[in-house]
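From: lab user (bench 3)
To: helpdesk
Subject: output format question, protein + uridine-5'-diphosphate-xylopyranose

Hello, I'm new to running complex predictions and I'm not sure whether the block I got back is the full result or only part of it. Here's what I submitted:
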Amino acid sequence: MSNVTVIGAGYVGLTTATCLAHLGHTVTCVDIDEAKVGQLNNGQVPIHEARLPELLQDGLSKQVLKFVVGASQAVTASEFVFLCLPTPQGDDGRVDISAISTVIEEIREVIPPGSTIVNKSTTPVGTNASIQSSLQRDDVAVVSNPEFLREGVAVTDFLQPDRIVIGATDPEAAQRVISLYDSIDAPIVNVDPPSAETIKYATNSFLATKVSFVNALAAVCEAVGADIESVTRGLGADQRIGSRFLQPGPGWGGSCFPKDMQALVRMATDAGYQFDLLRAVIEANEQQFERIVAKAEQLIDGSLEGVNVTLLGLTFKAHTDDLRNSPAIEIANLLIAKGAKLTAYDPMVESPAGLPEEINLVRTTEQAVARSDLTLILTEWPEFTRANWGALRDSMTVPRVLDARNALDRSAMVELGFQYDDLGRT
Ligand code: UDX
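Helpdesk reply: Thanks, we reran it on our side. This is the complete output you should expect:
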């Protein structure tokens, strides 16, 4: 087994460090946040990820996993140094890789000869080469190893991936990184670095395109009188299409899709190709937010001015606490602009910090729907699908639900006397 340093203890770094320790390696995970390092060494997980608390506890108790501040001393005994650093979107849509440049500057003289830098951060095509040149160490290889971790199920996605992507110019370095994953049963896609970097952006962009396509298809179904669930059943049965990521919703969001889509459009433009298809997908996603608001106005059959609107769900999807680029927040801002009075509840959002100040945040579904004129379901939390809607109905001013996740049973809701609308279901 190997000695690994993981730099960055965020969503990707923490999952990577904990899972590599679980696979039998000895891992030191580095972060600049001293408080977070202390919490992690005490077994406290600062993010909402299934299975992560148990794996963290296991790694700590077996003493194969520890957390420290400061990269330079951590890397001196490492055979592998994973870069799991934030690469946020800059103002111009380009990716900001300054965190990576800073770390490379910090470790380039102390990283041992023969060790391998493994870049798991999502970085523009060509970053592998620029890391190699700024390193100025021809005795240290740089290998791209992009991640495909969905928030909320990152541990499962790490340990049971559809494939492991490796991008290297040095075949031996590629084999060294591949060997880290020996106990994982998954196809290896071993390619050149630019192709590995492109696979990451292509994957997220294609998934976002698939979601925008099904959202548009739901609108078509409404127009032609088809049922989106029947259509996607037939569509998804085609092995060339597949049934996953065909669930209509309020639009895609999160910390990755929006950033990666903008980055790929920008990269292509800078390289001389106008990626108009992807621009159209980004535009279609913006329009989906507006479409949800238009459907709310149809349901109210008039203006939203002064209307008590309840939002059930604020996170960008269920089983996470992440509000970053959440469609629910985009839609909330559009509703506020139209004069709606918003009350919201999300099982994983306890503080109003980061929310539009006009939102009255409450702590239960019951509180949220009391006296509402219209209730929107924006995140598919099980708490909402399992709720006793008959009981909830009686506390509403008007029993009206716009289900932007097709999370509820349409006929059951109509039976209960709700004015009900959703996305593309007959
Ligand atoms: C995504 C990629 O899936 C992951 O591989 C990558 O490493 C990081 O970005 P994540 O951001 O956690 O993961 O979200 P994901 O589960 O992919 O969902 C993205 C968005 O699409 C969410 O807003 C979600 O609600 C939406 N979505 C997804 C749909 O609306 N319908 C679907 O069928 C699937």
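A quick orientation on your result: Residues 147-151, 204, 207, 211, 245-247, 249, 252-254, 256-257, 316-317 surround uridine-5'-diphosphate-xylopyranose (CB under 6 Å). Let us know if anything else is unclear.
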